[in-house]
Each structure stands twice: as structure tokens, then as C-alpha cells.
């Protein structure tokens, strides 16, 4: 009788044991090779490959070298190439298999590059990684232009461009920074610039933007766009939109 009682007590104790430490609800970490162990990069973290792409000597490098980092182009149109690098779009202008210009479309905290490295050292205010138009103009200089300032229609959003032409000290590297006019405060800045120009040249003349105008009211554009951040920045030569 005592033997049967002992066996019963042992069985009861086995049923009452705590759950395994890696059971659901426990604080133990899942195995590192499980799906639960895969951790996404924090939002806003710089895409790691960009540091390998945007080096001072990438201009003039072979496109084939770039593609060892990026893989093949996502899109090509003439000399223009677009590469998907993580969540970023790297845009390249090529000439005979070499990189003439390079930049990012959709500049953000995760998708940006060191603009200042492509220009001479010693500027009082080097261009930061996430610049406003005012930062670029203060650090380097440049002139504003727009492809349309009145009666633009619905085919595409107007684009405002700041173009800087580099000197010999900058290795003749140029810069183009652009933003599409689609939301405020961009639309309000564009409207103010347009309103200041219209009485001088006429509304219909502004359908083609600043092209061919002798007075484009640069001081007005500089004030209006000073605090706005461009969404596309490119450096190098043979740049679309100027440079």
C-alpha cells in the first residue's frame, strides 16, 4: 500500500512542474535563427550601403564597379539609371560606362549622403547631410529656376531647382537640388515667387517658368525656399535641370 502511495505522489509532482523557460509568455529569448529573431533596422537609420556608394572618388568610376554594390539598375532611360538600394533610390547619369553624376531621389533620414565631400574644403558653412535650400545656398551658392510658374496644367507638378556651378577648387563638380510643387509649404513658396514675377513679365510668360527671363527675382526665391528641403540632390557633371 505504501509503495502505491509513493508512486501516486511522484506522478502528481511531475504533473505540477513549471512550464519550460522558452514556452510562450516566458522572458527567454527565442533561438537566434528563428523568424522571431529577425530584427528590422530602426526607422530613420541610414541605409548602410550608401556609405560605400557615395565616396569622394565615385564620380568618374565605372558603372560596373557601382553595380557590384547595388546590383543591376532598376530602371534605365538613355544615360539615366535608377538603382534600388534598400528603401532608397540612387540616381546616376552615365557617360560611356562611367559615372558622370550621382544622387538620391527621395532624400530622407534613411536616404542621404555627404554632399560636402564633393566640394572644396574650407567653406564657412559646409552643406549638411539633410540640407534645406537655404543651407545649400549659404554653403555653396547657386541660382533658382522653375520649369513652370503659372498656368501649369495637370500633366505634372512644377519643379523648382537650385543649381550650383562648381569652380576649379570644387573639381568642377556641380550640384542640382530639386523639389516638386505639390503640398504646402512648398506650394505657398512657389506661389509667392510666381506672384512677384507675374506683374513684371505677364502670366502667360511664366508658363515656361524662368527659362529665358533676365530677372528671375532670385532674392524672392531665396527667401521663399530658404527653409524648404529638396527631395532630390545630385552632384557631378552633365546634370539634368542644369549643371
Describe the structure.
With 243 residues, the chain is α+β, with helices and mostly antiparallel strands. It folds into two domains: 44-113, no CATH class; 120-238, no CATH class. Helix content is 23%, strand content 19%. It has an eight-stranded antiparallel β-sheet. A hairpin with a 2-residue loop joins strand 2 (80-85) and strand 3 (88-95). The longest helix has 16 residues, at 186-201. Mean pLDDT is 84; it is low at 1-41.
Total DSSP E strands? 8
The first-to-last residue Cα distance is 100 Å
How much helical structure, as a percent, in the residues?
A: 10-25%
| Strand line-up across the major sheet | 1-2-3-4-8-7-6-5
pLDDT averaged over residues: 84
* Dominant shape: globular
Report the β-strand fraction as a percent range.
Answer: 15-25%
Computed over alpha carbons, the radius of gyration is 28 Å
How many DSSP helices? Answer: 6
Unreliably modeled segments? 1-41
* Largest sheet data: 8 strands, antiparallel
**Which oligomeric form is depicted?**
single chain
- Run of helices and strands: HHHEEEEHEEEHHE
Total domains, how many? 2
